[in-house]
Amino acid sequence: MGYLICNKCGGYYELKKGESIDDFDICECGGKFTFIEEIEGLTKSSVLMIKCPSCGNNNPEDSKYCLSCGEYMKPIKGRENLLDFLDFPALFIISILAVIIFILSSIIFGDLGNNSILFIDNNQPDNNLPKGIYLILIIFIGICAGLLVKGNYKKNALHGALVLMPSVIFGVVSFYSEMNTLLQYIASPNPIISLMIGSLSIVLLILMILAYSLLGGIGGLIGSIIHNKFKLDDNKLWKRLTEKIYHNKKINIKELRFGYFSFLLTILLVTLWSVFG
């Protein structure tokens, strides 16, 4: 069922079947309750070990994020672990959403590889509609990440860019295939010209990756602003949704991390097979 821990006195209460954090207001001492799944190995004196530098809330010693404001708390000792910083539940969910959205959009508006956002043909305005839609979708996916991830603007912008990794893989491989065909068509016997053309394709490839990341990051910032503006953490419906994601006993973070990287690898292999197979 989980436990409620008071951030003032350190006392804890085991939730019974049918009870949730919404059924309780404050502790008898006046402190606010926070929810954790496991309390094994923790005593009343050891529960409160880390104070959030942002809001001052006391958190269990194994907490990576403040249970009050959601800010990431850097480890007291040692270097910060990037894998611990990343919000894998949000990355996994929004990345899958991104793939579904782009697949449906490709079916409706045409292949993304043939509608690269870097190439807009002013002489064919009708072909620019899919490009504009893809740009909007990239920002929308970033907004979804910014809404779900708990953290500061920098963290939300980073996750807004990272959730587009599957789409970036698809776009990069498709773009490389397209450029390779173009290079074969305009191949020059002059090695200097060939080198210049090859270098230009690499520059365009880097620009495309940066464009995806930048737009996703902007979306993450917008999502974070919306999250804070409407105080979604105080919304009961939003709390229930995030509790199912972050406090689900069936979800293991290590397994989810492995699943996320396996998902990226699968996307890469499938894309390579579809383009070069």
TrEMBL record:
Keyword Transmembrane included in the entry's annotation: yes
Origin organism lineage: Archaea, Methanobacteriati, Methanobacteriota, Methanomada group, Methanobacteria
Keywords attached to this entry: Membrane, Transmembrane, Transmembrane helix
Short name of one Pfam family: DUF5518
InterPro entries: DUF5518 (IPR040493)
Protein name: Zinc ribbon domain-containing protein
Organism: Methanobacterium spitsbergense
TM segment ranges: 82-109, 129-149, 156-176, 196-222, 258-276
Source organism superkingdom: Archaea
